[in-house]
Amino acid sequence: MNPILHRLFLLLAPLALFLSSCGEKAPSESEGPYTVAATIGMIADIVREVAGDSVQVKGIIGEGVDPHLYKPTSTDVKALQAADVVFYNGLMLEGKMGDVLVRLARTGKPVYAVTEEILTLSDYILTDEESHEDPHVWMDVQGWIKAVNVVTKALSEYDSTNAATYQSNASSYIEKLEALDAYAKKSISTIPVAQQVLVTAHDAFNYMARAYGLEVKGIQGLSTESEAGVKDIEDLVTFLVDKKIPAVFVESSVSDKNVRALVEGANAIDHQIVVGGELFSDAMGPAGTYEGTYIGMIDHNVTIITRALGGDAPEKGLNGKLKPNSH
Q: Quick check: helix, strand or coil at residue 190?
């Protein structure tokens, strides 16, 4: 979806919600929970936290899958069509699903980008050198709280009978997110200043860097569709050696080939560097685990980064739920 159409879609989505509420059966008039589809796991997790048992949540893009490259299947399209409400990230994260989402909105189905509220902040969205908007807003907990607000408002309007419950659940969830945000700030601040550098497979951590005081270097660009050249690898090896950075990181949804090349290149010129751990970037951990929740995902990332770069964080993280030596 081109940027102009994307912006237009964001403007039309709230109208779609209004139109659908005029013509569809309200959830209070039907039996059982209604269905919400979410493109990525981090959004599905918000819906579960806010709505609880009132909804059945259908996640479209599974764990460990790269949303930048994901192409919707016919099953995905049917699931989106069958859902009563649809949430997606926006900012071109789900670029290959864009046409499907636009068609759904045009039918009058309530389709929401959780980045709607963020887009009203003139100085929030980060861009790369080619002015591509960075979609990885969940890496800043304060930014993701704004996504919780969007989901809560949309569900409260669609299912007004349970609006008070949704708002209460959201308030409780946001308290936990505020604690997570404070943990991230405190932990990362303990990393020696010269080592507050995060090197990963692609540029998924810029919002995290801005929020918590890191310098980030991604081998690939904002999208994993971009390619890293030999010179990119060589330049990063030189950077790592000059800065004496002790660790680099792989990502759960991105090939580790380029990161391994960095380690080999640095070690070849007598700078010992290690893979500090596997981070969750575009997808959460396995379903049913602590790391398979948004809070667990960020707790894992913050804890792994802090410890590998010489900072101070408990091995089991903020809530004592991380698997020991999971990195």
A: coil
Find out whether 209 and 198 touch, Cβ atoms under 8 Å: yes
d(CA 9, CA 5): 6
Phi, psi of 321 (to 5 degrees): -110, -5
pTM score: 0.87
Predicted confidence pLDDT, tens digits, the chain (327 residues): 444 444 545 544 444 444 343 444 455 444 579 999 999 999 999 999 999 999 999 999 987 788 888 999 999 999 999 999 999 999 999 988 999 999 999 999 999 999 999 999 989 999 988 888 999 999 999 999 999 999 999 999 999 999 999 999 999 999 999 999 999 999 999 999 999 999 988 788 999 999 999 999 888 654 444 455 678 788 889 999 999 999 999 988 677 888 888 889 988 988 889 999 999 999 999 999 999 999 999 999 999 999 999 999 999 999 999 987 544
Question: Which amino acid is it at 171?
Answer: S
Count CB atoms within 10 A of the CB of residue 192.
10
Q: How many CB atoms lie within 10 A of CB 58?
A: 17
Q: Which of 214, 195, 222 is nearest to 137 (CA)?
A: 222
CB 300 within 8 Å of CB 322: yes
